[in-house]
Amino acid sequence: QSVLTQPPSASGxxxxxxxxxxxxxxxxxxxxxxxxxxxxxxxxxxxxxxxxDQRPSGVPDRFSGSKSGTSASLAISGLRSxxxxxxxxxxxxxxxxxxxxxxxxxxxV
Amino acid sequence: QVQLVESGGGSVEPGGSLRLSCxxxxxxxxxxxxxxxxxxxxxxxxxxxxxxxxxxxDTFYSDSAKGRFMISRDDARKSVSxxxxxxxxxxxxxxxxxxxxxxxxxxxxxxxxxxxxxxS
Lengths: 109, 120
Prior knowledge:
Strand content of chain A: 35-45%
Radius of gyration of chain B: 13 Å
Distance between the termini of chain A: 26 Å
Number of strands of chain B: 11
Number of strands of chain A: 9
Largest interface: A-B, 24 and 20 residues
Largest sheet of chain B: 7 strands, mixed
Mean pLDDT of chain B: 96
Structural class of chain A: mainly beta
Order of helices and strands of chain A: EEEEEEEEE
Shape of chain A: globular
Helix content of chain A: under 10%
Oligomer: heterodimer
Number of helices of chain B: 0
Helix content of chain B: under 10%
Structural class of chain B: mainly beta
Strand content of chain B: over 45%
């Protein structure tokens, strides 16, 4: 059971929008930044969002992140087939003194 | 673009040992944190261990790795290693070498991943 809670699955059709949520506590999301990674099985994960809502260069603006209190979300608009992947939130936990991943959300397009 | 190249994975029997290595092509190696992230079959990503810059000597181990795994770095060779002892089937999976960018848990660069299979 991950400290950061994500739904195990999400789905949408091409062109639609989908939002993936990540729930934590004050010791992690509530007091630290949130990161989002995209992982296509068989490849290396890729950083999508850093410091809650910032996109690295090369990440399409279809991907956006936000954080409120002890929860965070990743929104994907204009879904494309290549967005089908596992998505993980991540944060630092000050109480555990450890980096954490959420359990991951499998997105089906 | 920094490249991380892992080596040392493979198959081992329960109770055995493996040593994973990761070599970085980056020029700022000695100023950066590195770690190992694992994905067990059918499971999510998990931080196994990380090592801070040499001057601090800080290391982290997941609860499952504590007492069995040891991470080390060689700044001259720009490499980081994970010595894994007393392996069990639960240690099986793909291990990714990770370069931390700015602060944990931001991973700026991932290796391609290396497979560890613990089975009798």
